[in-house]
Design brief:
The chain has 186 residues and is an alpha+beta fold. The protein contains 5 helices and 10 strands.
Length: 186
Amino acid sequence: MTAFGETAGLVGLRLRELRANSGLSLDAASQRVGVSRRLLVALEQGDGNPSLSTLLRLADGYGVGLAALVGRSETASINVCSESEAKRLWTSRRGSEARLLIASHDLELWSWKLAPGDVRQSEPHRPGAQEIVRLTRGRLAVSVEGEREELCAGKLALFAGDRSHRYENPGDSPALFTLVVHDPLR
């Protein structure tokens, strides 16, 4: 699921801009980014409810970072923002959520809450991508291509984000963690 509502218009504008700058027709853009023409039209119009995976696929297809697509890309020498400004880009029926706190073109800082029993499966990012997880509360299992490590509060993990990976809360209380994603543009 996604909490895309407040971001839809901005993403639609950015998608139209990226497609125009690329000189692509809707059909060519759809093929390039790996989403249906119908979905691309809806998203460009500020409609639709894309998953986080779809947003990542769109960003990758246009050769930009996720932050640039959702309007959180910071480019000044120093940028300051409030956590209250963070965009919620993923939610689940169980009450989990992921908020993009701040980002540059290839670096993202996220705040996650994963409800008990909830799982977030992530597709591989671009080659060379890495992720760092810092668990502040609860329990969290991190799996990368079948290799699984379980973390408790205060533990950190660094792993290859360019491989299939997932987060799972095996505990009975919410898992709260900070996630840093380095997803280099190539």
